[in-house]
Every structure is written in C-alpha cells, then in structure tokens.
Amino acid sequence: MSVYEFNVPTASGEEQSLEAYRGQVLLIVNTASKCGFTPQYKGLQELHEAYHQQGFSVLGFPCNQFAHQEPGTNEEIQQFCQTNYQVTFPVFAKIDVNGPNAHPLYKYLTQSARGVLGTEAIKWNFTKFLVNKNGEVIERFAPSTAPEAIRERVEALLPQ
C-alpha cells in the first residue's frame, strides 16, 4: 500500500488522486491558521520552494479538530495561506485526521508511522509525515518539529 492509492478533496471541492505525486518525496501536514504553530507555514513554504524542482512537495490538510483552530471555510483558508505566507504548495480541503470520520489517508498515515509510545492518533496541528518517492511513509514528526529540522531528512530522500 502507498499514499498514491488515496483520493483527497481539493479546496474547490473536487477529488484529486495522490497518484499525481507518484515519484515525489512528500511532506504531508495537518494545518491550522489560528495555532501557535501556524508560523510553520513559512518554513514549509521554504522547504517546498527549495526542493520542488528536485521532486519534493508539501501537502497541507487543514483540520479543525484541535481547539477549533481552523474555523474558516476552504476559500478563507486558501486566502489566509496565500496572503500571510505566500503558500504555493497544495492546501487541500479541510478534513478530519482523527476519529470515526478521519480521512482514509490519515488512517493510513497514522497506522504506518505511530507517534510517541506507539499511539496512532494525531495529537495536534502540524504533525508531519515524510513519504518517500515510492509513496511509503518513512517518518512522523511532532508538531513542535520545525520544518527546517526536517531539511536533511528530505535531502536524503531526493535524487543526488
């Protein structure tokens, strides 16, 4: 199994297959615009810009499950990301990452890379999953892990 087997909702309401990212290294992140970690959008954008031409993409998935820190509509979220952080990486539609309505992609991610003490549940906004070019989950990073701290891990997965 790989991330390429999943379809995800775009901000405009369409379904997109992650097959479109086959062969790329991905950093999949649940995001929020009213969180203490929201400034990480800047670092995520910098990573995306630095390595996109080498086959790397950040994929953002807004989520309102943590203290209601992503209350906006999909359109408002897109506007926020572009206006405040000049985000050019895909920010998809708002989804659930935990519980009975968790998106199947996130069920796969959390089962593939467990958190502290083997937990599956996402603990907070800006949990990050690094995926190799074969669509396999390599590592899970805590919300407090800054995007800059993942740079070497990304570089190691990219073609030399």
| Rg value | 14 Å
**Could you say what the CATH architecture is?**
3-Layer(aba) Sandwich
Strand content: 15-25%
What would the average pLDDT be, to the nearest integer?
94
CATH class: Alpha Beta
Order of helices and strands: EEEHEHHEEH
Count every beta strand, where a strand is a DSSP E run of 2 or more residues: 6
CATH topology: Glutaredoxin
Termini distance?
26 Å
**Going by CATH, what is the homologous superfamily?**
Glutaredoxin
Widest β-sheet, arrangement of strands: 4-3-5-6
How can the largest sheet be summarized?
Answer: 4 strands, mixed
Count of discrete structural domains: 1
The SS-based structural class is alpha+beta
How many H/I helices?
4
**Bulk shape:** globular
The parts where pLDDT drops under 50 for at least 5 residues are none
